[in-house]
Amino acid sequence: MEIFLNLWNNWTNLEKISFFSIFLIIFLLIPTAIYMITKNKSLVLFSALSLLSSALLTLIGILILSIIFNIEITYIFLLTPFTILFINLLNIGTCIGYYTLHSKKKDFNLIDLKKEFLKDTTQLSILILLLFSSLSISLTSLFLTFILFTGILSLGVIWFNYVLLHRLVKK
Amino acid sequence: MKLKFNFDIKRFVGYLSLIIATSFGITAILIALPLTEKISERTSFDLITKENQYWSREYVLELQTTDTKDIEKVRNIIYKRLKKFKVEQIEIAKLKELSDTGNTTLLKVTINTTRDPNLVKELIANQFQVRIVTKKEDIDFFDEENQFAHLFAENYDPTGWDRSNFRNVHITELKTTNNTYSYFAIFKPWVSKQADFNKLLDEHKGEYMGIDTDGFVTPYLVPLEEQSVFAIPLSYQYEEEVEAIDILYNSGIISTNYTLLSETDLDPHIIKINHIGISGGFAISLLLTYLLLVLLKHDTIDDVKRAFLASILTISVYLAFLKLFNIPVDTFLLPIIAILIFLLIKTLVVNLDSVFYIEIGLILLFLIVKILGYGYIEILANHLIWLVVLSKLTLISSGWYLDKIKEV
């Protein structure tokens, strides 16, 4: 916890407000927008939990890096939540896009959505795996740790999304 | 015998546009590739990296207060100033030990940036307390023995007007009496104070007033004729200086007195990466990734071709733009940008039903981060906003290009 306390104490009130405003706005804006687009409460809950879980996973990941692997958490790791959010939005976006386009069709059922989401998540995973690992070959030291950490975390987040969708969205 | 000349204008325009598009793409790729700057000596195609421009310094400020609220206010305003000036890394910590007297607090400001060191120091070290003053009656500004009398605050009387009476200080270029342009600070009072301020100017028509900034005064001769604008000339010429003065005027009022106690040079934090090696690695990895996608038969070959072409074009045009316009860049952000853009393009190509939601969602995210974030997150968001737009354009043009090629 010390790393978070140090970070917290070194931040000005303005920094704290800005940082939390970014996440608060995103956490409110995205589920609200999804509700307005889909009118489906399960998908709203899915998006909200997905965003929350990605934030939690990032925090836990940073703690593990710092405590277990004894890696110094520097300013570059502030880019991890942003990268994770980007990838998470891509993942959620594919699900919402498919739902809005197909939900009005007569033969549509939510199993199709789950299947499509599995396909999209697999594709995204392959790309993440290939791009992050190919980049890692040419990197060293802290930046390599950052890239590996962000890549692994992204995979964790999108597969957690799949589990969430599977559990939350019922027939 | 009559020769029939069959000229299909539509086909000709199609070929021509294809040739132009191909040339544009190849040019962008060539400029973007590392080391192609060595091809031509006439133009420089170097990627300007920020690594060598970084410097780091620690400033210790002594605040004449121990009140937590006042200290926090000073921290916030200094942070706001540096954030507006786009300083990459800022850390403002309250030191645990108080100074010798016990009535003051020490604040440590640590900076790691590429911005102008003198201007950064100005933003940190200046309290920038602004007051409007009037010349003391017994002071003669034309006294040859005291030629700088007009510059010192002790030669002026306070009017009770300070920065808090003004909603904004607008910095702009105005025409001077010599028909040249110079920067001015226009003081705009709160609507409720406008009448009182006009009255103050009326009372001092033809007299010297001034803006006292931390003890140094910029004199202002109040014109005899009626005037509605209170514009003080600035002695700055360069845009960066004017930006800093604008920030000092408009980032809040520090009422706590403080002084700069010390400044110490530190080793800058720089993440150095070999961008030439990484570019090569990326090109190979992109090829391998798409080859694998073809082998896995996850997507149609058309989708793979479109995504591949759009990815190459987006990154090439972006790098060519950075090189041609000499925009300095943090090289360690380039691999992150490339990964995110490759992921975005691939996702958009195979999920046509989601394009709108993803693009709008991402642009909203970047705008929020650009407004509220600072440092590298803000820089990254700023680049990605343009790249999302660029990737949209390259996706459309890649589709068009591949269709045209098929026609040929």
What key attributes describe this structure?
heterodimer; A: 171 residues; mainly alpha; 83% helix; 0% strand; B: 408 residues; alpha+beta; Multidrug efflux transporter AcrB transmembrane fold; Alpha-Beta Plaits; Gyrase A, domain 2; 3 domains; four-stranded antiparallel sheet; 10 helices; 11 strands; elongated
Mean pLDDT of chain B, to the nearest integer, reads 86
Major sheet attributes of chain A: none
Question: How many beta-strand runs of chain B?
Answer: 11
* Sequence of strands across the biggest β-sheet of chain B: 2-3-1-11
The sequence of SSEs of chain B as H and E is HEHEEHEEEEHEEEHEHHHHH
What fold name goes in the CATH topology slot of the largest domain in chain B? Answer: Multidrug efflux transporter AcrB transmembrane fold
Strand and helix map with partners:
The complex is a heterodimer of chains A (171) and B (408).
Chain A: H1 2-10, H2 13-38, H3 41-67, H4 79-102, H5 110-137, H6 141-168
Chain B: H1 9-32, E1 55-63, H2 68-84, E2 89-94, E3 105-113, H3 117-125, E4 130-135, E5 156-162, E6 166-175, E7 181-189, H4 194-203, E8 208-213, E9 216-221, E10 230-233, H5 239-249, E11 258-266, H6 275-296, H7 301-324, H8 333-350, H9 355-372, H10 375-407
